[in-house]
Amino acid sequence: MGVSRRLFLRGAAAAAALMALPRALLAWPEKAFKAGSSDDAMQALFGTTDASASSAVVLSAPDIAENGRVVPVSVSSTLDGVESISIIVEQNPSPLAASFDLGPGAVADVSTRLKMGKTSNVIAVVKADGKLYTATKEVKVTIGGCGG
Amino acid sequence: MASGIRIKAKLNGDQAEVKTLMKHNMETGTAKDKKTGETIPAHYITEVKAELNGKLVMTANWGPAVSKNPYFAFNINGAKAGDTLTVSWMDNKGETASEQTTLS
């Protein structure tokens, strides 16, 4: 009886692991997040690096971030048919920081806080009606004690 | 609040303004433990989902560059008082958390 219970638990654990794994692998664009350059990240995420700068993409971030560990970044857009909003920090080891997929009802306006290793361009990429639009802003990072 | 997720939602007409804070270390995998000198393994939220009455509104995919104890704010159109808003996350170790609130 003890054996069958153990077997059952082991089986259940294996099944749970199997179920959890594909979900994590399928949903999360690992290649894009592990990419070492902005272009590679965009290629992995969108299949193209073709994007045009647009005033309809509004990126707000500080001019100077005293603490690179917590840099507030907001992206909004007035474009129609926004499918996703992605934020790239060009000089980070892995430039893609976050990507937001908008479902029905979601407003093209998101805010979060990011880590920045050093002064860098921050690029907001908005995908609307299958096309990519960007806004770029340089954020100066002054990190005390890290040689910044 | 065992989930470590805090949700603040405000209704402006039919738009819900949602602000969330999640308790998570968001380890990049490059930092070293100051005492032992050993690298702290990567441990960060990879996916956040927001659902309104069980319908997926937004999925956020994150890398380790999102700050520790992440802040995430967004807005939902077509929301009304009494709607249920659920925010959940999953991290790279498969750990999950979920929190629910009723819009008012």
Structure described in brief:
Chain A is an alpha+beta fold and 148 residues long. Chain A has helices at 2-27, 30-34, 38-46, and strands at residues 52-53, 57-60, 64-65, 71-77, 82-89, 96-102, 109-114, 120-128, 131-141. Mean pLDDT of chain A is 87; it is low at 21-25 and 144-148.
SSE blueprint:
The complex is a heterodimer of chains A (148) and B (104).
Chain A: H1 2-27, H2 30-34, H3 38-46, E1 52-53, E2 57-60, E3 64-65, E4 71-77, E5 82-89, E6 96-102, E7 109-114, E8 120-128, E9 131-141
Parallel strand pairs in A: 1-9, 3-9
Antiparallel strand pairs in A: 2-4, 4-7, 5-6, 5-8, 8-9
Chain B: E1 5-12, E2 15-22, E3 45-52, E4 55-62, E5 71-77, E6 84-91, E7 96-102
Antiparallel strand pairs in B: 1-2, 2-5, 3-4, 3-6, 6-7
Q: What labels describe this entry?
A:
heterodimer; A: 148 residues; alpha+beta; Immunoglobulin-like; six-stranded mixed sheet; three-stranded antiparallel sheet; 9 strands; globular; B: 104 residues; mainly beta; four-stranded antiparallel sheet; 7 strands; elongated
Highest-level CATH class of chain B: Mainly Beta
Counting helices, strands and paired strands, the structural category of chain A is: alpha+beta
CATH class of chain A: Mainly Beta
Strand order of the largest sheet of chain B: 4-3-6-7
Q: How does CATH name the architecture of chain B?
A: Sandwich
Given the helix and strand composition of chain B, which structural class is it? Answer: mainly beta
Count of discrete alpha- or pi-helical segments spanning 4 or more residues of chain B: 0
Indicate the CATH topology of chain A. Immunoglobulin-like
Oligomer: heterodimer
